[in-house]
Design a protein that fits this description.
Among the domains are: 156 residues, Orthogonal Bundle (Helix Hairpins), CATH 1.10.287; 118 residues, Glucose Permease (Domain IIA), CATH 2.70.70.10. The strands form 2 sheets. Strands 1, 4, 5, 6, 7, 8, 9, 10, 11 and 12 form a 10-stranded antiparallel beta sheet that branches. A two-stranded antiparallel sheet has the order 2-3. The relative contact order is 0.12. By secondary structure, it is of the alpha+beta class. It contains 4 helices and 12 strands; from the N terminus they run H-H-H-H-E-E-E-E-E-E-E-E-E-E-E-E. GO terms for molecular function: metalloendopeptidase activity. InterPro entries: Cell_wall_metabolism_enzyme (IPR050570), Dup_hybrid_motif (IPR011055), M23ase_b-sheet_dom (IPR016047), PcsB_CC (IPR057309).
């Protein structure tokens, strides 16, 4: 159990260390509350946007229906205009017949007028009647005179009736055509107005959908941040529990450690006394993982540093890249607790480990791993393998992207420090 005490590399038991971790845990809880509040607001915004889209969709449907009905009315009026124009064509033929009839009547009347003028302007119908040679001839002449007079009156009457009918038909058809054309203009303007309204509604709908997508993306980012914060909080809580256990066991362990140290000194003295010139051997076996250094942090993997921390491709590179071909183990740079072991579209296979060293919280990040060998909440030791170097996520060639944060990890990476200042 003493080995657990070295998890956070604290030189001695410290109640202040637990207090600091409790404070950090509280700060993370506050961040989680803020993030959850942001998620709730995003949900509310999404619900409002979806409700607005539903209402707008109903309005667009109503406009589509109105446009369809207006198009039908336009088609009906166009058909009526075509029918009226055909009616006008028929009427023009009738008018042509009437004009021809009127022209013939005019000729008859003109002939009557010429006859009347040639006879001296006065036709004595009485003389025509009295000049009869017999009674039968008298009757025939009376009938003829009556027929001529009546025929003249009929010609004049029909002439007037035909003229009046012609004028009425022309006026009625022209009025009907004007009315239809006016309604067609009105419906066309209505369609233009409705189409303009629908265009504006479609534009607003596109804006609402874009806003919903942006809000969904924000919600996704907040949810991912919430998961990371939850992992950090769980890791700190586990660290607190381990530190409390260390404090509880330290007093008993100190006595046992003193006894073992005394025994070790005695054994060394005995070996020194009995060994005259003897030497110890060392193993020449090579490991693909780097040797664990004696400093606070050890190197996470073998390989060459191909990209340092700083500005890169017009962006800030928050860590370092270490590259090496083949099967390359990746190890934890210090004792700690795995706060998150997951896959990210950008980081690929990724492990985040929380370390508490001398009361200071650190977070290490190992990205683009080929595979992971540790899980959430797992306690790891300095130099313990956590996976293999890979090329997953947004990566171009096998390498390890490593970040070290002095404090908790956050999306803006404001706590990132240069790892090369902490190990070679």
């Amino acid at each position: 159990m003493i080995g657990v005490g070295s998890l956070f590399s604290a030189p001695a038991a410290s109640a202040a260390t637990i207090h600091d971790m409790e404070t950090k845990k509280q700060h993370i809880q506050e961040k989680r509350s803020n993030v959850q509040s942001g998620i709730n607001k995003a949900d509310q915004q999404i619900n409002r946007l979806q409700a607005q889209q539903a209402r707008l969709d109903e309005q667009i449907k109503a406009l589509d229906l109105a446009i369809g009905e207006t198009n039908q009315k336009i088609r009906e009026k166009q058909a009526q205009i075509e029918d009226t124009e055909a009616e006008i064509d028929v009427l023009e033929q009738e008018i042509s017949v009437l004009k021809e009839r009127i022209a013939k009547r005019n000729e008859v009347l003109k002939e009557r007028a010429r006859s009347f003028q040639q006879s001296g302007g006065d036709v004595n119908y009485l003389e025509v009647i009295l000049g009869s040679s017999s009674f039968s001839n008298f009757v025939d002449r009376v009938n003829a005179v009556a027929t001529i007079v009546e025929a003249d009156q009929d010609i004049l009457r029909q002439h007037e009736e035909d003229k009046k009918s012609l004028e009425e038909k022309q006026a009625a058809v022209e009025q009907k055509l004007l009315s239809l054309e006016s309604m067609l203009v009105e419906f066309t303007e209505m369609k233009t107005k409705l189409t303009g309204q629908k265009r504006e509604k479609d534009k607003l709908m596109a804006q609402l959908k874009l806003k919903e997508e942006e809000t969904e993306h924000l919600k996704f980012s907040l949810q991912e941040e919430a998961e990371i914060l939850a992992g950090q909080q769980a890791a700190i809580q586990k660290a607190i529990e381990l530190e409390k256990n260390r404090l509880a066991e330290l007093e008993a362990a100190r006595k046992l450690a003193a006894e073992e140290a005394a025994k070790a000194r005695a054994a060394r003295e005995r070996r020194a006394a009995s060994n005259n010139g003897g030497g110890s051997s060392s193993s020449d076996d090579y490991s693909p993982a780097p040797a664990v250094s004696s400093g606070t942090f050890t190197r996470p993997s073998a390989g060459v540093v191909t990209s340092r921390m700083g500005k890169r491709w017009n962006k800030f590179h928050a860590g370092i890249d270490i590259a090496k071909p083949g099967t390359v183990p990746v190890v934890s740079v210090a004792d700690g607790v795995v706060m998150r072991s997951y896959y990210s579209s950008s980081y690929g296979n990724c492990v985040m480990i929380s370390h508490s060293i001398g009361g200071q919280l650190y977070t290490s990040v190992y990205a683009h791993l080929e595979s992971k060998s540790v899980g959430n909440g797992q306690v790891v030791a300095k130099g313990q393998q956590i996976g293999y170097m890979g090329n997953t996520g947004r990566s171009f060639g096998q390498h390890l992207h490593f970040e070290l944060h002095k404090g908790a990890w956050n999306p803006s990476k404001s706590n990132a420090v240069n790892p090369l200042n902490y190990f070679n």
